[in-house]
């Protein structure tokens, strides 16, 4: 699971995964989606981001969820 556009650094945003070279967290982008914003609106709000960076954040989030440990119900 390699994510070239995402980095984790304890000195940037407390180590949360961010778009490389920014302080924009993957969590922030996912919350924008959850709040009803679409990708085009996010790009308008943050013109220094690229579509590739946003898609990389989504891929990172999906990979994290896909690798969660599943707990079986009793």
3D structure, described in words:
By secondary structure, the protein is mainly α. The chain has helices at residues 26-34, 39-45, 51-66; strands at 6-7, 18-19. It has a two-stranded antiparallel ribbon with strand order 1-2. The longest helix is centred in the last third of the chain and has 16 residues, at 51-66. The radius of gyration is 14 Å and the shape is globular.
Tell me briefly what this model is.
The chain is mostly helical and 74 residues long. Helix content is 43%, strand content 5%.
Keywords:
single chain; 74 residues; two-stranded antiparallel sheet; 3 helices; 5% strand; globular
Spatial strand order of the main sheet: 1-2
- Binned, the helix content reads 40-55%
Q: Termini separation (Å)?
A: 31 Å
Give the C-alpha Rg: 14 Å
Round the mean pLDDT to the nearest integer and report it: 95
Number of separate helices: 3
Number of strands: 2
Beta-strand portion reads: 5-15%
Structural class, by secondary structure, is: mainly alpha
Q: Which regions contain 5 or more consecutive residues with pLDDT less than 50? A: none
The general outline is globular
* Major sheet attributes: 2 strands, antiparallel
Secondary-structure element pattern, one letter each:
EEHHH
């Amino acid at each position: 699971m390699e994510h070239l556009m995402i980095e984790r650094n304890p000195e940037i945003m407390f180590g949360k995964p961010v778009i490389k070279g920014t302080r924009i967290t993957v969590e922030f982008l996912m919350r924008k989606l959850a709040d009803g914003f679409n990708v085009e609106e996010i790009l308008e709000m943050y013109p220094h981001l690229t579509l590739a960076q946003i898609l990389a954040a989504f891929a990172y989030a999906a990979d994290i969820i896909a690798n969660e440990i599943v707990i079986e119900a009793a």
